[in-house]
Amino acid sequence: MLALAVGLLALFLHNVDLHRVAGNIARARPGWLAVSLGSMVVNLVIRSLRWQYLLEPLGGATFGNAFRATAVGFAASAVLPARAGEVIRPYFLSRHERLSATGAFATIILERLLDTITVLALLASFVLVFGRGLAAANPSAFRWVKWSGATAGAVALSVLVVLFLLAGDPARLGRAMTRLERVLPSALAGLLARIAEKFAAGLGAVRRPGRLLVALAWSFPLWLCIATGIWAVAAAFDFGIPYTGSFLLMALLVLGVAVPTPGAIGGFHEAFRWGTTTFYGIPNESAVAAALVLHAFSILPALLLGLLFAAHAGLNLSGMRQLADAAATEAHPA
């Protein structure tokens, strides 16, 4: 993963005048940069509040513990490969709350689905209403964005339906997994059954449409806050991109961070550079400068807070890695 990150970063900086990049960063407007940085902190708060709400069917958690676990999880994803923070977050929380770590992990998956649906809804508003003028500027790239968004939306909704069916009767899922005793050792089959039942119980929000809609409603201020951070960086560099243009850039960044490098290094940068240069004609060095600043703002608040909270809990980087390994072992006991 480290080699992949280095390769993507080398591609991102290929034929780039770093002196001009540094000059663009030095000339960025500090007021807009402050807005962007502040929005990243608010984003962390809203994300923690939404997670706290999703955890209520499992017994609930305090906002403080949800916030600390969220920060630790995002810090771990910033320094460890393969988005390790996604599995560390629920296991860190289970150290401080009487919750099933496996059930809490199910809420993380639900979070990602809600995030995907929200980002795609905002992208659809851009494609159908706000950004139709860009179709003439680059029709092939615009068609690719529409096709990718529609495909991702269909997949996300399909997965949500599957989770709804799994969440309908956690005990029944456990009993079905127990039948694996016919082909697996009874102890292993029983363990898988208990994990599956706890996982389905963690999908409690899916069983109640009203609760699921409230969780989805939390997702819109969360992603509008992220869009504000993106747009504020664009404004700091005088890109002239409208606020709704951040909906397009945000969707591209979601694709970029899907590349499993530590801190989404490389994928994040290239996605932002490609989006701003392709659709808005931003000069390459300016796009590179803004991408570097936006990436730093995106990870620094959670990284600093997460490392502080982890250290307070007696976890260093090695401990985070061990926690991720233990979580992966429990999720895949074979």
Number of helices: 16
Structural class: mainly alpha
> Percentage of helical residues?
over 70%
Radius of gyration from the CA trace? Answer: 21 Å
**Strand-residue fraction?**
under 5%
Overall shape: globular
Please tell me the overall pLDDT: 84
Unreliably modeled segments = 186-193
What is the number of E strands? 0
- State the distance separating the first and last CA atoms: 24 Å
Indicate how many domains the architecture comprises.
1
Element order, helices and strands?
A: HHHHHHHHHHHHHHHH
Q: Largest sheet at a glance? A: none
Question: Can you tell me about this structure?
Answer:
This protein has 334 residues and is mainly α. It has one domain (2-167, 202-331). It has helices at 2-12, 18-26, 30-55, 63-79, 85-94, 101-130, 134-137, 139-167, 170-178, 186-201, 204-207, 209-236, 245-257, 267-280, 284-312, 317-331. Helix 6 packs antiparallel against helix 13 and helix 13 runs antiparallel to helix 14 (267-280). The relative contact order is 0.18.
